[in-house]
């Protein structure tokens, strides 16, 4: 579990600099340049992700069961992850209603993804991985929404065309991951076929 925790600490600390220390980040970029920042940011992200994947794999190889989730939670999780993929797509497609309403749909998508995996998995490694991401996403969403309110930032209005594109893009990505990539990359099919 130590490797998983170390990976989570590196990855999420790296992804929290803009949330927790935006002034320090801007100062670093001003002094060393944006290319240096992006290089170091990417390096820490990759190292953290590799440690998370390796540590999570170790936790699955020697599992500690905390609870046994009911089978129905897997079906609910598939639905929640579909919605999470739509929200993740909404973060990258301009002019959709999700972004207009939520302001930060990526954090909302990560919250839903993490919660879905928490209810469908009962091992300690799952609880650490998805619970940590859930806490991080809740904090990030709240911090960003509060900053937006204080700064008077209002997301641009969404339109139906961009919202449909968002739903289609999120659904295609979800289907690709659910029916193929999850089994290939994680080793577990979310939907038994």
Description of the structure:
With 193 residues, the chain is an all-alpha fold. Helix content is 79%, strand content 0%. It has 2 domains: 1-62; 65-193, no CATH class. It has helices spanning 2-14, 17-20, 22-32, 34-61, 72-90, 97-102, 105-120, 124-151, 160-186. The model has no long low-confidence stretch (mean pLDDT 94).
| Number of separate strands | 0
Distance between the termini: 31 Å
Mean pLDDT: 94
What profile does the largest beta sheet have?
none
- Residue stretches low in confidence (pLDDT < 50, at least 5 long) are none
Instruction: Quickly give the structural class.
Output: mainly alpha
Quickly count the domains: 2
Instruction: List the helices and strands in order.
Output: HHHHHHHHH
* Estimated radius of gyration: 18 Å
Shape: globular
Number of helices: 9
Strand content: under 5%
Q: State the helicity in percent bands.
A: over 70%
